[in-house]
Structures are given as structure tokens and as C-alpha cells.
Design brief:
The chain has about 270 residues and is mainly alpha-helical. It has helices spanning about 20-35, 35-55, 75-100, 120-145, 165-190, 195-210, 215-235, 240-260, and strands at about 65-70, 150-155. It has one domain (about 25-100, about 115-260). Helix 4 (about 120-145) runs antiparallel to helix 7 (about 215-235), helix 5 packs across helix 7 (about 215-235) and helix 5 (about 165-190) packs antiparallel against helix 8 (about 240-260). The chain starts with 20 loop residues before the first helix and ends in a 7-residue tail after the last helix.
Length: about 270
């Protein structure tokens, strides 16, 4: 082998440790959001534009679905499709947790993903559910009356034996992916990149609002406020489970409550 053909010694080759941490984390954040809620935000914004441009009166005359599934002659296959969709939705949260486990960033960067305080954190989740849910319903009603929000068909799901379990699993999926990715993962990585708490919190809350734009202005504002509250809590406690519990309860009550109440409450 000639000198020209010799490989570069390992000591001369750049290693992962020589790459600036902020650059590594920045690309990682873009990748995680690119396969999860970042793309959801882009699609929601395009839906927002489509509603404003193509529907006379905009959101005042629009209708959107949050959870929907078609019904075929093969209910078990329909159930398998629904469960596969839920699994697919949870995977970005799994990816974020794996990445945080690989490079946690030192003391104080945990996300509270453990069972040491389950009872207390579930109670905190119930309190957050009330704090967010009651004003949230009011905002939905006001937004609908003023034409700022679309008419939201929360659940368009066939009346079949597995409907409620699948809706509850969907609520759990939403709680996991949104709170783990948008709060725990994103705020942790932005902190490690040197961002201030205020700047990181604003970006996290804007991201949460962005992928609800398809619902209208009310959906954006309501979820922006929710993102500010949840993000503020996480930055001070580093505990994500109360937020997962709260989100699960909020969506669970919304999904299951809708199928039993929408024929009895005029604005649902």
C-alpha cells in the first residue's frame, strides 16, 4: 500500500465529540420535529389557508374532524388499522425519550419519566385538566359564536364495540407525543443549546398552537395558552407525567363525551 492509499489515522478524523453540541442538538431537534409535530404544524397551516381561501366566510362556515375512521365489512381489520395508527403516533415520543437517554446533558436535565410519584402526579394532572378544560370549552363556544373557529366534529367514528377503547388509546397517544416531544424533549434540548427559558417556552407554545390551526383562531390561541402553562410548569419541576395525565384526561373527556353529548348540546 502506498502512502497515498493509507487511510487517515483515527486521531486525525473528526469525532462526534468534536462537533459542537449546539449544532448536533439543533439538527436533532429539526429531525425529530420533521417526523412528528413539526410537519403536523405545516399541514395545519396549509389547512388554515385552504379554509380561508376556498370557503366563503372562512371558519364560520367550515367543519373539521379531530378523530375519524371509516367503517368496512371487516371490523377486526378496521381495529387493526386504528391500533397501527395509534402505535405510529406514539413512536416520535419513544424516539425523543431514547435520544434524551443517550445524551441527557448532565444533572438537572431529567424529564420526570418515572413512577416515584404516580399518585400525586395523577392528582396534579386532574387539576391541570380542570384548569385547562373549563376555560377551553368556553373559548371553543366563544370562537364558534364569533366565527373564529370551525365547527369541530370531535369524533367521526362508527358505533362499534371497540369505539371507546380506541378513543381512550388515541387520547393517551396524544398526551404522550405532545407532552414528551413539544414540552419535555424540546424544552430540554433548547436549554442545552443555550436558549433562555422565555425564548424556548415561546417556541414550544407556538409549535403547539400551530398544529391546531386547522381548527381556526380559537384552536390556535387556546393551545398556545395551554403550551405556555404546561411549558412553564415543566421548566420549574422537570416533571412531564402530570402533563401527560392532564392531556389524556382532556382528550379522553372530549372524545368520549362528544359521542354521548353532541346530539344534546347545540354548539357541540
Amino acid at each position: 500500500m502506498t502512502d497515498a492509499e493509507q487511510t487517515v489515522p483515527a486521531a486525525q478524523a473528526p469525532s462526534a465529540d468534536q462537533t459542537a453540541p449546539q449544532e448536533r442538538y439543533g439538527l436533532e431537534v429539526l429531525a425529530v420535529l420533521g417526523v412528528s409535530l413539526g410537519m403536523s404544524g405545516i399541514y395545519a397551516f396549509l389547512s388554515f389557508l385552504r379554509t380561508q381561501i376556498t370557503i366563503p366566510g372562512g371558519f364560520a362556515n367550515a367543519s373539521v374532524s379531530v378523530i375519524s375512521q371509516s367503517k368496512s365489512s371487516y371490523p377486526l381489520l378496521d381495529l387493526a388499522d386504528a391500533l397501527a395508527d395509534i402505535l405510529h403516533g406514539v413512536l416520535p415520543a419513544f424516539l425523543a425519550i431514547v435520544l434524551l437517554m443517550r445524551t441527557p446533558g448532565g444533572p438537572g436535565y431529567g424529564i420526570g419519566w418515572d413512577r416515584s410519584r404516580l399518585g400525586r402526579e395523577f392528582a396534579q394532572g386532574m387539576a391541570f385538566c380542570a384548569l385547562i378544560g373549563i376555560p377551553g370549552l368556553t373559548l371553543v363556544w366563544i370562537g364558534r359564536q364569533l366565527g373564529f373557529n370551525a365547527s369541530i366534529v370531535v369524533v367521526d367514528f362508527p358505533d362499534i364495540w371497540y369505539r371507546v377503547p380506541v378513543l381512550l388509546l388515541s387520547a393517551l397517544q396524544n398526551g404522550l407525543v405532545e407532552e414528551v416531544v413539544v414540552v419535555a424533549y424540546l424544552l430540554t434540548r433548547l436549554r442545552q443549546m443555550g436558549w433562555s427559558n422565555q425564548r424556548a417556552l415561546a417556541v414550544s407554545a407556538l409549535l403547539r398552537g400551530s398544529y391546531h390551526l386547522y381548527q381556526g383562531y380559537g384552536g390556535f390561541v387556546g393551545n398556545l395558552v395551554m403550551g405556555l402553562i404546561f411549558g412553564w410548569w415543566f421548566q420549574r419541576t422537570r416533571r412531564v407525567l402530570p402533563l401527560v395525565f392532564a392531556h389524556f384526561l382532556l382528550d379522553g373527556f372530549s372524545f368520549v363525551g362528544y359521542i354521548y353529548l353532541h346530539n344534546h348540546v347545540s354548539w357541540l
